[in-house]
Design a protein that fits this description.
Length: about 160
């Protein structure tokens, strides 16, 4: 059996406070790499996708499981973390937080058209409090980082067909 290739892709703009939370999650995963609590399935990469949109399409080549991590308007309290798949994922990407989410929806659409859409796609979505110029996450979203990191790890393991250690 061939090992599955996984990708955790953090999306966001670090210059717009909570809008950069996906990148902060990727940074936290990188800091935890090599520790038991940071273990990811074999063959799983973490990538800071920033605001690159369609430029990220080549990264999806050969990926079996894709975990996107991003700020999203969930209509919930700031800092709420939700894991979305299927129709729920499409609905949230339709209600953009900012212009880069148009790029995420376009990325998934282009991957589908190119036959490169991974078989398993999920979004770890974090409800932002503030999307405005600034470098720091708001306290509510900063407090949600551990839950978002845990959710991204759990999704990566689920995509690989195993439970997180």
């Amino acid at each position: 059996m061939t090992a599955r290739r996984g990708l955790i892709l953090g999306i966001g703009n670090l210059l717009l406070q909570d809008e950069g939370v996906g990148v902060h999650v990727i940074q936290a995963l990188a800091r935890a790499a090599g520790t038991p609590e940071g273990a990811l399935p074999p063959g799983t990469e973490t990538v800071d996708g920033g605001t690159l949109g369609l430029d990220l399409l080549p990264l999806l080549d050969g990926v079996d499981g894709l975990v996107l991590v991003d700020a999203a308007q969930l209509g919930r309290e700031p800092g709420t973390v939700a894991v979305l798949r299927g129709d729920e994922l499409a609905r949230v990407l339709g209600g953009h937080v900012s212009a880069h989410q148009v790029g995420v929806a376009d990325l998934l659409g282009a991957a589908r058209l190119a036959g490169a859409l991974p078989g398993r796609v999920s979004l770890v979505a974090i409800q932002p409090a503030v999307v405005a110029p600034g470098l720091a996450l708001t306290p509510e979203v900063a407090a949600a980082l551990p839950a978002a990191v845990a959710a991204a790890r759990a999704e990566a393991w689920a995509h690989a067909g195993a439970d997180a250690p």
